Amino acid sequence: MKKHLLLNGEWRMTDQYLDVYAPYSKELIGQFAIATEIDVQQAIESAHAATSKMAMLTAIQRAQILEQLSNLFAEHREEAATIISLESAKPLKYAVAEIDRTIETYKFAAEEAKRLAGELIPMDASKGGEGRFAYTLREPIGVITAITPFNFPQNLVAHKVGPALAAGNTIVLKPATQTALSAHFLAKLLAQTDLPAGAFNLVTGSGKLIGDTFLAHPQVKMITFTGSPAVGISLRNRAGLKKVTLELGSNAGVIVDGGVPLENIMDRIVMGAFSNQGQVCISLQRIYVMDNVLDSFLKQFTEKITQLKLGNPLDPTTDLTTMISETEQQRAYTWIQEAVNEGAQIITGGRIENNILLPTVLYNVPSHSRVSCEEIFAPVVIINTVSTIDEAIEAINDSNYGLQAGIFTTSIETAFKASKKLQVGGVIINDVPTYRVDHMPYGGVKDSGTGKEGIKYAIEEMTEMKLVIWNNN
Ligand code: NAP
């Protein structure tokens, strides 16, 4: 039951452990070591000591390690998915989908390890460059520290561990406390690969203490954080010259234009709004529907919602279950009540039954209601009508966030206009903003973060460009 820290390839016990319970069954799932400042410093130092071992690996050796890891996840697919489902109440079907993506993410990392390359610079394009030959190299930066959230405990960790190792760096991982069991499973799999000891280290405990120790340690070259904006922005403000990537939250929106065959898009809308109980950074939170299709949209949407199966996350037929904690569920419920007091109408849901917040649709929500302008991170979606595409684009842009946005339309002109005007990191034409595959560039603007993930793009963040100039004069 006791889960220790991993430093330099060895499990390290601590004086204090924290009990963690399953959100749905409430069973005790593990006792996780609470790292002290000294433990965290030693984890960083063990990662630092391993940088020379990582530097000796060739590209193909790094690729093989990541390939081994991808294959191990494929071999242990069901076990890895069951752990996610147990610790985070992610319905098993989505947990299996997450492991399938994790397998691919490490595979992409293995492939990118072989493509780490610079470029030739045409020096003689400048009068002062004649007779000179130059090229760039991408070099690993050293120790990377990663802090990850609960909602994708394997795949979002893979988006940090994969590119860090592909580029020849070492890493200290601090997973979300609620989902540290998945991080331990990853550690067990990595121990079966040829990765040098100390290249991957695992610390658990207080996010604040661990984050502050990462910030203070001179050997840490980068902090890559996925989580809530408040924590991410505070880390960046104190990071000095350390590199920082922030993948933060959003209140993602979609536009539904007139003329779209609604029956073809309903499954995607339901998945976008309610998968993993809406606890997805690009969960569909705001729907702007052209006013002439509202009635038909609401009818088809609510019909689909009644087909969702609520229950135990470990049941493979379950679509929706309890949120990560009762506190979070109560917060979301309070925001729904607030919106109703501010004039919104509940179309369906809006209640907690058997410890599950029912899939909730709110209509006619003022833009200043928290369910609209903040990140709800719950199975709650709002629908407002618009009479023009410009109005819809303006409504989506009226947000502090900008991760991804979607638009369903049959008009090329409208799609093109939306792609240019939406202020987000990614525009998805004819799908929900919740769409993501793991090699695409991914990251937000505004309070949704800074820096990109998607293996190739994360590797750019996790390497330094070095220039070499030969003077042949
Ligand atoms: P969170 O509360 O910010 O936690 C994220 C991580 O930060 C956890 O490991 C947490 O540790 C740690 N942490 C907490 N306080 C800290 C501090 N003061 N200093 C350093 N680390 C600290 O977020 P969450 O509830 O797990 O995840 C939900 C958020 O993540 C949402 O806003 C969501 O949109 C965002 N997210 C973004 C993306 C993306 O790619 N853009 C993807 C997924 C999620 P403990 O667990 O120990 O508290």
From TrEMBL:
Domain of life the protein comes from: Bacteria
SUPFAM superfamilies: ALDH-like
The EC number(s) this enzyme carries: 1.2.1.9
Keyword Oxidoreductase: yes
GO molecular function: glyceraldehyde-3-phosphate dehydrogenase (NADP+) (non-phosphorylating) activity; lactaldehyde dehydrogenase (NAD+) activity
Pfam families named in the record: Aldedh
Aldehyde dehydrogenase domain segment(s): 14-468
CDD domains referenced in this protein's UniProt entry, alphabetically: ALDH_y4uC (cd07149)
Gene3D superfamilies membership: Aldehyde Dehydrogenase, Chain A, domain 1 (3.40.605.10), Aldehyde Dehydrogenase, Chain A, domain 2 (3.40.309.10)
Keywords on record: Oxidoreductase
UniProt family annotation: Belongs to the aldehyde dehydrogenase family.
Official protein name in the record: NADP-dependent glyceraldehyde-3-phosphate dehydrogenase
Source species of the chain: Lysinibacillus sphaericus
Gene name tied to this protein: gapN
